[in-house]
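Cont'd.
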Amino acid sequence: MKGWALTFVLAAVFALCVGPFYWLAMAATHANSEIFAETPKFYPGDQLGANTAKLEESIGLVHVLGNTLFVAVVQTSIAIVVALLAGYAFAKFEFRGRNAFFVLLLSTLVIPGGVTIIPIFEMMNDLDLIDSFPALILPNLTVPFGIFLMRQSLLAIPDELLDAARVDGAGELRVLWRVVVPVMRPVLAALGVFLFLGAWNDFLWPLIALRTPEMFTLPVALATLQAQARTDFGQVMVGTAISSLPMMILFLVLQKQFISGLLAGATKG
Amino acid sequence: MINRRGVLALTLAGTLTLAACGGGGEKAESGGPVKITVWSWKPASDGLAAVAKDFERANPNIKVDVQVIGNPAIWEKITVGMAAGGKGLGDILHIGIDYLPSYVDKFPGGLADLNKLGAGKYKDAFAKGLWPTVTGKDGGVYAMPWEVNPIGFFYRSDLFEKAGIDAAAIRTWDDAIEAGKKLKEKTGASLIGLNKPAAGSMDMDFYQSLLQQQGAFYFNQQGDVTLSSAPAVQAMTLIKKMNDAGIVADTSGEGTAKKLISSGKLAVLPWAAWAASYIPEMRPEQKGLWRVMQPPAVTPGGKRTAIVNSTHLAISGTSKHQAEAFKFIEYALTKPEVINKVFKEGGVFPALTAAYSDPVFSAPTEYFGGQPALKTFVDSLTEGADATFYSSDYARALKIASDAQTQVLTKGADPAATLATAAQQLAQQTGRKLAG
Amino acid sequence: MTLTMTREAATKGGGSPRSHRPLITKRNIPYLLILPALLGFVAFKAYPILAALYISLTTGAGAARTFVGLDNYVRLVNDPLFWTALWNTALILVVQVPIMLLLALVLALGLNSPLLRLRGLWRLGVFMPSLTGLVAYGVMFSVILSKDSGLLNWVLGIFGVDAIDWLGSPFWARIAIVIALTWHYTGYNAVIYLAGLQSIPKELYEAAMVDGAGAVRRFWSITVPQLRPILLLTVVLSTIGTLQLFDEPFVITGGGPDNSTLTISLYLYENGFRYFDFGYAAAIAYALTLIVAGFGLLQLKLTGGKK
């Protein structure tokens, strides 16, 4: 295919993918009463500042973004470490119950999340953790998909590499840190993007587990704007547009590592 | 942007302090003021928050925290709390009539019996038809009526004029259908809009109002299924007639109704009292074009009133501060001057009948061409609506009735046959009897 | 196993007294590594899942909960809506997953072309739909799919196509779900494929070109076999994802019209959160799990289940 033809086709796909976001971004610059006016708004309006100011006033945008960022960063970081350690054990050690645990872990992938919410809520309540960030973070630290990805990728690392380090007298954690982590950096970046995305957009559990507006994450705070017919879509659109920015930045920053990282997990599958 | 360390410190400090007071201020037993938490949604919550400040001034030992949860998010939150035996619920819960009976029946003890706190004396204080709906099968009173939404008939006077229609002459829905045909021909506008394929609860208000005008609903007082009763069939037949006449616009899709309204393609909005403040807010530029009257009756000379929904304040059964919570509810909902302040700040139409003597309910409304718009609704409530028996299976009934309406509107199904099947399905799913 | 045992023997042979044994020994290293994951698993996966199993054997909620044995499962088998939901889910799965993965592959091939400039930008563009939050997603598609004022019908109208009742006809509503799903996840899968494509050694292609193989031949004899592990990964993930399909019907069609887009997960949600029938909802979850596990096994069998 000629370069210009390819570019043309891709531009069409690009427009299809980004078009709705463009509409969203434009909607964010119009007043609520204008967004669904007779003609679709394809041009920027002058209400961006007003919508953002209203949003800051009604949900405390900056504070809520801080909460979301904190939860997503802490949760993602810990979950990656947990997955790396477990994946390392599954891939490089023989131990009693290994296969049974691994199969159990993977089988939880297929259980719909909705049914476990009530038991987890009761547990968090008994632990007096409701309305705290630990309540959001704790249930999401063991991620079967992440452990699976780590194990598959680690299987590809030759044992000789690890043994060489061990012969030099390095402890296991040192081997992990000095030898495994550098090789695995792309997969870790990939998993990071996945987990961050999940944590950032998580809605139902934070809604149930949080009580005070000071603790809300962005999706929960945006839900408070919903009031059936009276929803202020100007604010909702600004909030949504802002909420996708950090993930776009993360994707751009990590995409080089991310793209080769996915590969390591999958090709060795 | 704050730097990373700042965010970290801030949120960490937040975690610690908030985790420390875990269950929401339940630990302030001795000494300091008692804190009660209210779960609600906008804009009603604005009204409540406004009077909460006055209340706190008069009762320095009680602090009221009105939390905006959002609607529909609030239902998921309350439901999980109820399912967990009432753990973690707010002290006061804002609950719509569509959910209230289910919470009362399916979670015994989930809501406090307000009779024990002295609610009984307000039995006759609220608009007719409401008290039976907040009363449980066991005779307990599980919520205090806050907001009432009698249905209205908002119409574009300019379009009516253009089509040569005298709104006052429309007395039955059959008259309205004739007017709708003329409107369509002369102005191109549809009479009403309905979300034909996936009617949600708001879209079913219209069908329900036609039932309620005939004193009927999905269930009767005994809790038997009446979805295939003669009034139910007649109401659905009316909707089919309108649809067949081509005067019902499809409003499926977010914002579709708003677009049709802004372009003058909808002549009538069969919306309830909340729309008296919502329409001016949504379409400020259509000032002077809208009027409101009571909706026409289903049968000549029949009732023109229907309460399409109402919302209430309940106290969670596990609240440790039920007396204080009731004190606040009593303050906010049973005093005319207070509830009218809630109305002014939060836009919800008060259920308290004593509130209607306030001049605001008979004052001319500029947006509605100087018509005293609110008076229409007061008149409706004075005429008095019949009590509606939502039952604990309302959600299932709503879904099944909505599916039936979809079949009628999109496939042209026969109302009687469709409702007969629907009623059977409802009876089977809920283990209820079909009414004879 | 043998390895652990020898290690154990070695430690014992060393004869170091119990109290002086270091906390971390060769033998318990894997257990220490697995411990955090195990704790999280027991507390937040195994326990709630078993609790849900018990709930599926009960009816009522809170104080009114009673044990009813297998009643919920019997009811499930006799519930026409459950079968409708299952059928809809299967239908969407069979149509949507192949279309999406094929599109994703084509897109990845395009994005991988050496003729293309500014690849980072293109990649971000196609990945963006997977960043959308649920509320905005719902609003966007409601706006796009509306019959009389929707963007999609407006675009189709330019090409002379009559307005389609996307949300009002059972057939088109399912198509609408397929379109929304495809929009949401194609770019995501394309990015995964892209990674795979970039890993295929260039020498393979060069050798084939020397042998005179055309572009189509090269695609089938090099690209597809080399991508196999990745293709399998996406097929498995997309299948599990679609069997648990909830977001799209929840925010776009509400399961309508007339239940034509009701999916298993949506039905589960309605029973739990709208009808407060938690026992029944849990039973639906377990039924779905059995079905998904069955599919998983089948897929594993078909693909040889190799590591």
